Amino acid sequence: MRNFIVKCMLLILVLYAGILIGMEKSSDEKKQSSYEIYSLQSPSHINENDAKEIEATLMKNNRELIDEEEKLQVNKDKVSYLSEAGKILASVVTGVVNKVIDVLTNLI
């Protein structure tokens, strides 16, 4: 019994050490790759043209926002169709299960 407990504790210790090493390696890779992959952009931009007019944009320009809104609307329509299909499927399954339960209760 003592040998079993010692083996289990040793196995748990090895697995725990592996988890800690993996977390450390993942953290190091995340720190290195985040600067290379993602370019940090300022949320606001201020531009000055030749006529000394200053134009400021916050977050994104209007056209990008409109494009994103159109994409979201298309996705919303797709989700709506899936939601309706799910509701119909749920009502069919509920009806079938209720009929099966009624039949089984009548047999008993």
- Spatial strand order of the main sheet: 1-2
Q: How much β-strand is present in the residues?
A: 5-15%
What count of structural domains? Answer: 2
* Helix run count: 2
From the alpha carbons, calculate the radius of gyration and give it in angstroms. Answer: 30 Å
**Helical coverage, percent range:** over 70%
N-to-C CA distance: 52 Å
Structural class: mainly alpha
Rounded mean pLDDT is 77
Q: Which spans of ≥5 residues are poorly predicted at pLDDT below 50?
A: 36-40
Instruction: Please outline the major beta sheet.
Output: 2 strands, antiparallel
Strand segment tally: 2
The global form is flat
- Elements, N to C (H/E): HEEH
Quick take:
InterPro entries: Uncharacterised_YqxA. This protein has 108 residues and is mainly alpha-helical.
Describe this structure in words.
With 108 residues, this protein is mainly α. It folds into 2 domains: 1-39; 61-108. It has 2 helices and 2 strands. It has helices spanning 2-37, 62-107; strands spanning 44-48, 54-58. The protein has a two-stranded antiparallel sheet. β1 and β2 (54-58) form a beta hairpin. The chain is flat. Mean pLDDT is 77; it is low at 36-40.
Task: Name some characteristics of this structure.
mainly alpha, 2 domains, two-stranded antiparallel sheet, 76% helix, flat, Uncharacterised_YqxA
Give the topology.
Layout: H1 2-37, E1 44-48, E2 54-58, H2 62-107
Antiparallel strand pairs: 1-2
